[in-house]
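We emphasize that the prediction below concerns an isolated chain of 385 residues; any contacts that depend on oligomerization or on bound cofactors are therefore not represented. The input was used exactly as deposited, without trimming of termini.
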Amino acid sequence: MKRLLILSALVFTLAVQAQALTIIDQDLNEAQNVAKAEGKLLLIDFYTTWCGPCRVFTAEVHDNEDFAAAISQDYVMLKYDAENDNHGLTAKYHIQAYPTFAVLTADMRLVHKTMGYGDTGSFIEFLEEGKNTADAGKYIPGVSQQIDLDFPEIYIKTINSREPATPEDVAAYWAGVEDMTAEVPFALISMRMYTEEVLDYYVENLDTYRELYGELDANGVVEGVVMQDLFMAIRLVDEEAWEAARTKTVDMLGEEGAADLLEWVTPRWYTASGEWGQFADYVDGLIEADPEAYSMINDMSWQVYEDCEDQSVIERAIEWMRPVIENDPDFMTLDTYAWLFFKNEQYDQAERYISMAIEAGNEEGTDVSASESMLPLLEEARKND
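Result of the prediction step, given as a token string:
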């Protein structure tokens, strides 16, 4: 799949003439004016200064001229610091994860939305979907063009300071709400500011919310609910609660909607319950389905380094990481690879790859002190070997 996405990216890039991408910082009015003048859509990049994937995306746009040109074909980009909400866009679109990208028409019709950044190919696919949707005259109908909505104080405070509202304040707000499917009430629901009665209504009317606000945001509410149950079962290592939470996830999201969420959570159940053989078998299946999911492979391998004492699984994690290092080495993957070798008492390999990780981290401007801590450990381990 990833190869197809990359091919899509290359085809899309070759179809456009090289041109500078217009990037506007924090100024919505200017971004709208430029988008109107150029007859383009508006792409809002909601970022924070501390967000790693946000920095990766920014660097990709800056360093990859073809990628920037592909975006520029149909979009003007507004870089928007979500924690400096000078236009109220963070509140308007209830932004909670970074980066989040929103595609809008120049007159502020929300067309498409996604969270996170993976690679240029999948991002260009997202842009193509947004452009095709806009060309068809479609948009997310429940989201109005108005920015300055009458949000209650408890919502604005939660957005700005991330301080949760009290249950009493939340109940008081909902006591005065007549239409629970309206835009402002949905924003509060998206931020998990609801009563049990409101949540019951929401789940019963999920299809309506999907039609109004799109599957990404509508399903996100339910995902938050089931995630609480899933992680509670993991914390308690309660197999009965785990199976009940899995069933609830499928019931609420459907088989297809639940698949990605359960794929992410299931390995954590195996590690919590100490079922490392099943964990490794599960990761083998994920890799077979997508052998180029390097970020996932790195995450699962690091989990092995941190928590697993089963040498056979440690050796399997080293094998998982081998093609990652061959094809996409960077500081994080080299660091993981090195620590796995260290844990497996392969000290020469550990030294080789931790040196490469430190060099890569220095080039990336990353703090490498944790990696450097291996060097005296290697010296000590060799003395005792």
